Amino acid sequence: MAKQSTSYKRIRALFPDHQGLARGKYLPAAVAGKGSRHCITLFALAFDRTMVPAPGARLLEGLPDVDLEFSLEDVRPSWEADTGVVVGDLSFHGEPLDISPRHALRRAVSDWEKLGYKAKVGIELEAFVMQPDGKGGWTEWDTPGAYVYGTGPAVDPVGLLDHLMATADACGLPIESINSEYDTPQFELTLVYDDALKAVDDIFLFKLMAREIAFRHGLLLTYMGKPFADRGGSGFHVNLSLEDKKGKNAMHDPKAKDGLSKLAHGCIAGMIEYFETSAALCAPTVNAYKRLRPAQLAGYWANWGYDHRGASVRIPHERGGATRLEHRMPDGAANPYLATAAVLQAARLGVAKNLTPPAPEEQDCLEHQSTTRHVPDNLSLALDALEANEEFVNAVGKELVAQFVAVKRAEWDKFTAAVTDWELKYYLPFL
Length: 431
Prior knowledge:
Elements lengths: L9 E7 L5 E7 L7 E4 L25 E5 L6 E2 L5 E5 L1 E4 L2 E2 L4 H14 L3 E15 L5 E3 L19 H11 L4 E6 L5 E6 L2 E2 H21 L3 E3 L13 E8 L18 H12 L1 H8 L5 H4 L12 E3 L6 E3 L9 E3 L8 H17 L26 H10 L1 H7 L1 H20 L3 H7 L4
Helix pairs in contact: 1-7, 2-3, 4-7, 5-7, 5-8, 8-10
């Protein structure tokens, strides 16, 4: 049970915006129970604070307030002294805010509950660590002894991971494992399996905590999908299982040859059917599509396979209570609520429509693969694919998708208008 809020001097009340940023206020503990109010037009903001006339953000309707509501019982210890932290829900005039990412995940969870199942989720998160380059920017953290699956001071010379693990434990953020990844200085940060909403709340707070702890060390921890052109990218792998009313893992069927139930196969089919459609919510930045390329083992192809890291939907070999589907396409910078909601809804639609998955991937996915289908080649095409599928849009939330697409279209327009360093270096010597 979380520490009682009355023991804190202040409460940090947070909610996720469409970009996955943690927005909110510090509230004196004595009045925190009243909640807080926030301008709804924050949902019109791009990363650079440009205001986009996005549907639902009411930019041209007076910029009214929304309410952030939470229970004091949900307040937990934070990584700041004398401060509790809580993730709340947004409402507008007493009704859940349609464009809220957390509301979208609640809807996905509820849709599965109507079918008699509890969605369970485990998140594998990857991130790079950067240090100041002395020129006002950032460069890779100096970890010359690091290697994949490394632990200890060679991969963590200042004890950053030790600090993260100790702080996460104190805050009730249950870590399953931390290790260095293939491309240094990259790390995999995995939290334990739990009910979908709780698991995503945990990863949302963990992402914020990890960045702020890194800042205390003079470092920048980034979830950007592809910060280095010559290295692999950072993903946000969503591991999904479904629990039936008896508390059993409904993905498992001991009588089936592969140990997977019909329900599991329906979920796989849905993830593949809505693969291109869900990409914008799972990979929501221009940079994300530089990670999602062929032969990168990063969730590029619309395929699935048994314990196959080249497949976008991987079926780990464990069965019984550990039976699960790992969706590998989501990007490290994805909004955790929207990416998870997209995966849950794609899986549910596959079951609802009684879809059958294609044959599992048996080729290497480095030089050969069984499919020609893949994620859209850029963010703009991904937004096109999302908007074109009315069924999926309605499942995730029509109002939310309209708002999200408007802001992301503006982001794409800024990118296409920008002159990059590559263009200058490539063309200037000759043109």
